[in-house]
Amino acid sequence: MIAARLTSRLPFFYGWIVVAVCFLCWLIADAFGFYTFGLFIRPISDELGWSTVLITGVFTVRSLISGLLGPVIGHIADRSSGARWLMAGGVLAAGGSVFLVSTMQSPWQFYLYYGVIGALGMIGFGGLVSHTILAKWFIRMRGRAMGIASMGVSISGLIFIPLNHHLISLYGWRHTLVICSSIVIGLAFLPALLLIRRSPEDLGLLPDGIDSFPASGAGGKGSRPNEADQPEVSWTLREALRTKTLWLMLIAFNATGLAFSGVMIHYYPYMQAKGVSSDLAAASMTAYAFFCAAVKIPWGLMAEHISVRYCIMTVYSGCATGLCILVFSETTPLIFLFAAVYGISIGGIMVIREVLFADYYGREFIGTIRGVVMPLNLVAMAGGPIFAAWLYDRTGNYQLPYYIFMAAFAVGVAFMYMAREPVRHPEAIRTPVRRTL
């Protein structure tokens, strides 16, 4: 077993290897995804004559299927060998999906290849599985671990936005997708298969690389302890569902998810609709991805020292401010100001939201909890892109959906303010048990 051999030889905690593999998986995730999907809308529409709603609708199907699979995938991710096979299989499904899309001729093929098969890849090595794994490997350093890993998706945007823009102009969208497929499978499959393990206990280790937990279960709140050698409170699924906090969080996540997915998928077409050149639109998207990447670790470190609830309220406020700048932007400096403000803000969402779940409800059943609530959380994310496309086809512009997205972030701030940390009694702590190989 490669992972077991590395554990005894590495001069540092094996958890950072897990972080590196998650980073790599996120790095290749956006070869044809959130950041880059918009680049392909017009080329596909021009060649096949499909409407914006038809093309964007595939993202809705993809998100809905991922959400429906969430309870099963989350439960598997909590099991000893499930996470590794989920991630490796997800890479294969994602790469195969992108290749198949390059061959499509009919809408049903697009929805099967990207909507169904792509969903298997998205859920297999996406946020549910990777963040479940990271939450189990780290407690005290959870914020920075998730910050480093999630930098991959932003750096992916930095790489694939200009790369795909260039390749589409040279070779067309079909050949570009073939290249992306090769990159996805070639870079991430073997590392995910050989190096990922569900939790430190599976290798005879403990979170953060500590030597042992204390005999007594100190602490009573459901958050990350202040000291590295203390265990967390772990909530069961039934217990978590009974807390008002979880439902307030889900309302906030759904409102902001509507905005997040809608803005991301339609940003490039929105820029073109405003009369911005394709080169400038691609450059602003790249700048946005740069700011997202640059703030991942700082946001993670902040979440280790400041209430994650306040952190995520700050993120949502910044996103609303960024969209306000965008809808009134008419000049190049304002477009790049939006990229900076929105990128710095939204760059923290992926990190802080996942830290929030783990801090509030512990690491033992985090995959199961996240998986069960995932269908509810993805309803709005699935609807955001097609909702914006529907309004665009009827109004001829993106102004109205972007005003709605701005308001959605404000709703997120209000509900996260009410989502205070749930509290458990000290005897509820479950101290993890060291496992032998």
Task: Explain what the structure shows.
With 437 residues, the chain is mostly helical. The protein has one domain (16-199, 217-425): MFS general substrate transporter like domains (Growth Hormone, Chain: A), CATH 1.20.1250.20. The chain is 74% helix and 0% strand. The chain contains 17 helices and no strands. It has helices at 2-9, 15-29, 37-48, 52-77, 82-101, 107-125, 127-137, 142-171, 173-195, 237-241, 244-273, 278-305, 308-327, 332-346, 349-361, 366-395, 399-418. The protein is globular, with a radius of gyration of 21 Å. 55% of the residues are buried. The model is unreliable at 216-229 and 426-437 (pLDDT under 50).
Name the descriptors.
437 residues; mainly alpha; Growth Hormone, Chain: A; 74% helix; 0% strand; globular; disordered C terminus
Number of strands: 0
Major sheet: size, sense and barrel closure? none
SSE arrangement, N to C: HHHHHHHHHHHHHHHHH
- CATH class equals Mainly Alpha
* Share of residues in strands: under 5%
Query: What is the straight-line distance between the termini?
Result: 10 Å
- What's the helix count? 17
The CATH architecture assignment turns out to be Up-down Bundle
Mean pLDDT: 84
Low-confidence stretches: 216-229, 426-437
The helix/strand class is mainly alpha
Approximately how much helix is present in the residues? over 70%
Total number of domains:
1
**CATH topology term:** Growth Hormone, Chain: A
Radius of gyration: 21 Å
Identify the CATH homologous superfamily: MFS general substrate transporter like domains
Q: What is the 3D form?
A: globular
